[in-house]
Amino acid sequence: MELLKLFLSFLKIGAFTFGGGYAMVPLIQNEAIEVHGWLTNKEFIDILAIVEMTPGPIAINSATFLGYKVGGILGSILATTAVVLPSFVIIILIAHFLSKFKDSPYVDWAFIGIRPVVLGLIISASISVARNAFIDFKSVIIGVVLFYLISFKNIHPILSIVLAGVAGVLLF
Predict the structure, then answer these.
(1) Which among 68, 95, 92 has a CA at the least distance from the CA of 79?
(2) How far apart are CA 69 and CA 59, in angstroms?
(3) Which of 14, 43, 135, 141 is deepest in the core (most CB within 10 A)?
(4) 127-144 pLDDT, tens per residue?
(5) What is the pTM of this model?
(6) Could you report how far apart the first and last alpha carbons of the chain are, in Å?
(7) Domain-by-domain residue ranges, the chain?
(8) Three state DSSP letters for 58-81
(9) pLDDT tens, position by position, 4-16
(10) 10 and 87 in contact (C-beta within 8 Å)?
(11) With contact defined as beta carbons under 8 Å apart, do 31 and 9 qualify?
């Protein structure tokens, strides 16, 4: 029964999230913590850190990792399949009908309307993660310094992860 819940949760996440992995974070968080209790807030932040450090899309990495935690290898397969299945089906349908509707102003207007929602979901995920990641003043300093280095000094994200890890070891 838990595997069916896992599959349906990630199918819903994959079907109703536009904007990629970051936009999925609030939905994954809600399903994993609030709805099913598969994770605590701390575990979710830890998983989020792991999936952002590993290659691949956040949604797929999250589904694979959480699926494994809930149901082992079969759970990983089911959650990963469920999260990509809606996109796969939608892309197949879009490819089939694209030539017919590609110049439609309604399609353009729909995407213009969806863009702000995607931004809102990403901001919501960022605020939610920040609430749980910033546990004290030292963690806020690490976050602010690395945000500055990434955003304005263009340091590589991998280097920022290493620097954050070193700062964590030194400060905590």
Answers:
(1) 68
(2) 15
(3) 14
(4) 877 887 888 999 999 999
(5) 0.64
(6) 41
(7) 2-133, 135-172
(8) HHHHHHHHHHHHHHHHHHHHHHHH
(9) 999 999 999 988 8
(10) no
(11) yes
